[in-house]
Write a structure and sequence with these properties.
alpha+beta; GNAT family N-acetyltransferase; 31% helix; 7-stranded mixed beta sheet; HATPase_C_sf
């Protein structure tokens, strides 16, 4: 549906979050490129309202989504918390505040405004990528040899986002350079590419080695599109699931993948390939930079 969406008022119950997610799908439609991100963020804001405000003590939560074509607007209004407002914790790696960190990672813009005693979490997302990015076709596609020289620069740009967290990667070749050398499967978005996903087979399943989006194009749903295509192709190929290794607490790593259906994979379920990947990371000093985790999405 394009144009104005009609909001819904739901009871402040955990079980009503499913109704909020269904509402988002009804407004945007199953094929909308921003659906996963909008639905995830609305779900997190709804859960926050139920847990931390009067909405969860017999109150209600109002949800509205509007598809404007070039962007999607979403709002979640609670019944208030005595003047306290939802906020993003200054410590990006803190254990609390996971929901707001997910919103911060997925939405192109977001904020909180007061409406009397109530708080309204508002969010903006990229709509149709073709319009938003000045005609650039962002549908994921297999990388061509002429794309390869661009990809290390994308990864390097993305790595710079970790610096404010005190995460500086050890010197060495870019991950995508090693994947190109191995002739692994690489998907790209944009022509020339502005993002990529590199996958290979590990323990008889698809393993996502890297997703990276150039910093000039983050928060536009490109990473989500790439991940969705990785999962689609993996299912089509008959893979039982998709595995990956990532930082547990960095908002656009572990929490972002969790928002897209990945769960931590217990060590006893690791195959020899995943164990080798883990050991290689330890040897390279990657685990000294922050907690790492193996994640898995069942297909």
């Amino acid at each position: 549906m394009n144009g104005a969406g009609v909001g819904v008022t739901l009871p402040g119950l955990e079980c009503a979050a499913g109704l909020a997610r269904a509402y988002v799908r009804d407004v945007l439609g199953a094929g909308h490129p921003a659906l996963d991100d909008v639905r995830t963020c609305v779900n997190e804001a709804f859960a926050n309202a139920v847990e931390h405000t009067a909405s969860g003590r017999g109150g209600r939560v109002e949800v509205s989504v509007v598809d404007e074509g070039v962007r999607v607007r979403a709002e979640v209004a609670d019944d208030g918390a005595g003047g306290a407002r939802p906020r993003l914790c200054d410590d990006l790696l803190a254990e609390n505040g996971r929901g707001m960190r997910i919103i911060d990672a997925l939405a192109s813009e977001w904020g909180v405004r007061a409406d009397g005693v109530r708080s309204v979490v508002w969010m903006r997302f990229a709509g149709t990528g073709r319009t938003y990015d000045r005609g650039m076709d962002l549908e994921p596609r297999p990388a061509r040899p002429e794309d390869w020289p661009v990809l290390p620069g994308i990864e390097q740009s993305g790595d710079a986002l970790f610096t404010p967290l005190g995460i500086v990667f050890p010197p060495g070749p870019m991950v995508v350079e090693m994947m190109i050398e191995k002739r692994a499967e690489i998907l790209v978005a944009g022509d020339p590419p502005v993002g990529f996903a590199a996958v290979e087979e590990v323990d008889g399943a698809v393993h996502l080695e890297q997703i990276s989006v150039h910093t000039d194009h983050v928060r536009k749903g490109i990473g989500g599109r790439l991940l969705k295509e990785v999962l689609r192709r993996a299912a089509e190929a008959g893979s039982p699931g998709v595995s990956l290794l990532t930082f547990r607490d960095v908002p656009w790593n572990g929490p972002w993948y969790a928002a897209h259906g990945f769960e931590e994979l217990p060590r006893e379920r690791w195959g020899l390939g995943l164990r080798a990947h883990w050991d290689a990371e330890v040897g390279a000093g990657l685990h000294e930079l922050g907690p790492r985790v193996v994640m898995w999405a069942e297909l």
